Amino acid sequence: MVRYSRITGMNDVLLDQQPYWRCVLDHVQRVADLYGYRRIDVPIIEVTSLFVRGVGEGTDIVDKEMYSFEDRDGTSVSLRPEFTAGIMRAYIENGMHVLPSPLKVWTAGPLFRHEKPQAGRYRQHSQFDIEVIGEQDPAVDLEVINVAWHLFRELGFTGLRLQINSTGCPQCKPAYVQKLVDYFTPLTDQLAEVDRLRLRKNPLRILDSKEKSTQPLLDAAPHIVDYLCSDCADHFVRLRRYLDTQGRPYQVNYRIVRGLDYYTKTVFEIKADGLGAQDTICGGGRYDGLVDELGGRATPGIGFGSGIERIVLAMQQIGLEVPEEPTPSVMVAYRGEPAKLVAIPLAESLRQTGIGALVAFGDRSLKAQMKSANRADVWYTVILGEEELQAKEATVRDMRDSRQVTVPFTQLESWLRDRIDSEA
């Protein structure tokens, strides 16, 4: 027989991982509600040109990592490698510019990038995403940073560190890119092959290089903040002023450029203690030219994303505990078919009132059903048999101390409800 295995780079999120995922997404929803962000969902598949135009040719995502294929009608489509381009497409296509501005949205779901698998990073990975569309005020940049900071602090991360930079805009970025090329060109023979390619295709990506041979050269490389136009420089100064006023500590990191071409002005990353070299837990930035690049009217925007697998791995790595998933509190057990015919609708009736209930399948003995109740870690087992049916009352066993009482059918629901609520 054929034994099937996961495709390389894909990952199963098994039962023991689910409490972490639930905790992360519950916190995302709660923090998004606090700041007034509403959920949006967009398709997993888009036309390939959306990402080529939005993310940018010459980026690793477009050149190496996208899952692209020809649809049945001949259209080139791709599994989404990131969220922002698809959300901007939805913003334009659905006329969302008429909604109150700025529009604050969030989403979560799978992304697909054919990159080298590593711990916490898979070819299908899930991410949550925050976006603000329609406002240039650097105070919005601060709020987006605050959303991320608030979330990770609530999840229990400590030693949070904010790093920021400005990547300029289409008016000032080209001059800086030329300065970068002028600096690295005489040093080409000292660069790794991957960075030589970046120098030709997308010079800004060299600043994010992890190659050992490139690291010493980066220290003396020109800084983009020294080449910003007056508008970008003012934006960066005001953001730093807002951060200082709020008392939010930060560091200017001239090497932060992020991996997507659409970023303009503010880019940022948040790091946390206890995670070793892979300590970045989220990153994002401003993309003021993306909407008009995709065919809409000129509209500013800013956002960030964070991989859920990476967050879960980090939580486990530093020993953060999460709430256990809720489980049913009651098992309904039975002796014989007549009692089973009562047990099944009784369990459903309890569920309809909000009491989690299990019922055994397969006509197992009462002893086997009690073992199942122990394994399920329920608080109470309701036992039905011929005697209980005749007396119209149930035997209820407290599974923690094995004490038993009889409760009339008419009072069973309220009896269980009172005790479960008081103990919860």
Explain this structure.
The protein is of the alpha+beta class and 424 residues long. The protein has 2 domains: 15-172 and 228-317, BirA Bifunctional Protein, domain 2 (2-Layer Sandwich); 330-419, Anticodon-binding domain (Rossmann fold). Helices cover 39% and strands 20% of the residues. The chain is built from 15 helices and 16 strands. The protein has helices at 18-35, 48-55, 60-65, 84-93, 138-155, 173-184, 193-201, 215-218, 230-246, 290-293, 308-317, 337-352, 366-376, 386-391, 409-423; strands at 38-39, 45-47, 68-70, 76-79, 103-112, 124-133, 161-166, 251-252, 264-271, 280-286, 301-307, 330-334, 357-359, 380-384, 393-398, 404-408. It has an 8-stranded mixed sheet with strand order 1-5-6-11-10-9-7-8. Strand 9 (264-271) and strand 10 form a beta hairpin. Helix 1 (18-35) runs antiparallel to helix 5 (138-155) and helix 5 (138-155) crosses helix 9 (230-246). The radius of gyration is 28 Å and the shape is elongated. The mean pLDDT is 93.
